[in-house]
């Protein structure tokens, strides 16, 4: 995890906007290979969007080959309501840049079948090749998108009931107060966010400090869904000083120092290799060769053999060395019995070698027994058992 700490909201926003521009430009998107960007709403990303618009206008970046997926949307709020996330995104970003309308994806909180809407959204993300960079904000209770405390960390796009805390926090945007805030929303899941190649979270202000502390200094916990970022290979949180208020001094110093060292070493803004943000490398699945031993086909990754059930079905007699029958004294590998004081044990465990020799001379193997053992061995190869039985014959 990278934690980038900046003095104030505007320098944190500037860092994130520059980062996104660099990612898009480095990716060099084309119509057939667009850059797929996940986007949030809320007050936190407003500064980032403002700078992205400025950079677009200055010719530093184009969104022509960028495809976007927004994180969430209220249910039942008219699409053109001033507080719908549709309105928010067009007001702050989409109306000011060159993104083609068909490249913009937002959940429809008024869809006739909300569940189908969510499933279709996941399918669209898949069809776009997955999200290259998911930008996110967080709620005061540590939610990412609308994944409220207690959300499954394996969740995907779905309907979510909002907590009282979130309704209260978001009521500042609704003139009528609490009653006007929708109580339910559609949201991408925690796993949908984790599936992105890269996740960048902007965290601003003291009211997010506890959530940041839970995410950075404590374990992965579904009550602070942002903490699931610890499971992502490339997460980066960009915050202002106020958001660090609940962090330990040593945590802040640690993250600041590694950023300083990285800068001194010349890789402050190291751009990712193609493996990180380029098209996924072709993964060749090499099938393990099928090995057939004595009629038993070994499992392969492509066609796993139900080994467990095979063993469960098998009778212990045929599948396992039978431990309940102790080996005869003849198989004691060394003369351990001589170390046991009890003469009874000594006699049983370590027969007199001379007696052994005599037995060997007189004992005749039963005709055909060795051949029968060889046959049974070909069905169930259990070298230990087989060896044991053959030796028993010779004893
Ligand atoms: N669903 C959104 C979240 O995606 C966003 O992160 C959060 C933070 O909003 P703000 O940045 O205004 O604190 O608001 C809402 O709850």
Automatic annotation (TrEMBL):
Residues 332-351 have a biased composition (Basic and acidic residues). CDD domains: GlcN6P_deaminase (cd01399). GO terms for molecular function: glucosamine-6-phosphate deaminase activity; identical protein binding. GO terms for cellular component: cytosol. GO terms for biological process: carbohydrate metabolic process; glucosamine catabolic process; N-acetylglucosamine catabolic process; N-acetylneuraminate catabolic process. The keyword Phosphoprotein does not apply. It catalyses: alpha-D-glucosamine 6-phosphate + H2O = beta-D-fructose 6-phosphate + NH4(+). Residues 298-395 are annotated as: Disordered. Residues 8-223 form the Glucosamine/galactosamine-6-phosphate isomerase domain. The keyword Hydrolase applies. Its EC number is 3.5.99.6. Keywords: Carbohydrate metabolism, Hydrolase. PROSITE patterns: GLC_GALNAC_ISOMERASE. Residues 298-310 have a biased composition (Polar residues). Catalyzes the reversible conversion of alpha-D-glucosamine 6-phosphate (GlcN-6P) into beta-D-fructose 6-phosphate (Fru-6P) and ammonium ion, a regulatory reaction step in de novo uridine diphosphate-N-acetyl-alpha-D-glucosamine (UDP-GlcNAc) biosynthesis via hexosamine pathway. PANTHER family: GLUCOSAMINE-6-PHOSPHATE ISOMERASE. This is Glucosamine-6-phosphate isomerase.
């Amino acid at each position: 995890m990278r934690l980038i700490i900046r003095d104030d909201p505007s320098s944190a926003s500037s860092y994130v906007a520059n980062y996104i521009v660099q990612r898009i430009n480095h990716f060099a998107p084309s119509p057939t290979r667009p850059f797929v960007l996940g986007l949030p709403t809320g007050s936190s990303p407003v500064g980032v969007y403002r700078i992205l618009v400025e950079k677009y206008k200055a010719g530093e970046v184009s969104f022509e080959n960028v495809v976007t997926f927004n994180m969430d949307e209220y249910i039942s709020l008219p699409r053109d309501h001033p507080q719908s996330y549709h309105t928010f995104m067009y007001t702050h970003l989409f109306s000011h840049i060159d993104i083609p309308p068909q490249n913009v994806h937002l959940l429809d909180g008024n869809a006739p079948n909300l569940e189908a809407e969510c499933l279709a959204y996941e399918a669209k993300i898949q069809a776009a090749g997955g999200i290259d960079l998911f930008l996110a904000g967080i709620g005061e209770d540590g939610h990412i998108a609308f994944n409220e405390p207690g959300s499954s960390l394996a969740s995907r796009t779905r309907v979510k009931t909002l907590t009282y805390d979130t309704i209260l926090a978001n009521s500042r945007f609704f003139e009528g107060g609490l009653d006007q805030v929708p109580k339910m929303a559609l949201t991408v899941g925690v796993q949908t966010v984790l599936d992105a190649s890269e996740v960048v979270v902007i965290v601003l202000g003291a009211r997010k400090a506890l959530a940041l502390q839970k995410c950075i200094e404590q374990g992965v916990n579904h009550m602070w869904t942002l903490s699931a970022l610890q499971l992502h290979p490339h997460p980066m949180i960009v915050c202002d000083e106020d958001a660090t208020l609940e962090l330990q001094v040593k945590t802040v110093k640690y993250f600041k120092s590694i950023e300083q060292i990285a800068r001194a070493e010349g890789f402050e803004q190291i751009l990712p290799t193609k493996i990180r943000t380029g098209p996924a490398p072709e993964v060749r699945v090499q099938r393990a060769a099928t090995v057939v031993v004595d009629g038993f086909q070994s499992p392969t990754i492509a066609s796993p053999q139900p080994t467990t059930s095979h063993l469960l079905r098998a009778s212990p007699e045929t599948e396992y060395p039978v431990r309940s029958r102790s080996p005869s004294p003849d198989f004691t590998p060394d003369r351990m019995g001589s170390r046991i004081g009890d003469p009874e044990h000594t006699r049983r465990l370590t027969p007199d070698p001379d007696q052994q020799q005599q037995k060997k001379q007189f004992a005749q193997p039963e005709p055909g027994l060795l051949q029968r053992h060889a046959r049974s061995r070909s069905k169930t190869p259990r070298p230990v058992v087989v060896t044991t039985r053959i030796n028993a014959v010779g004893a």
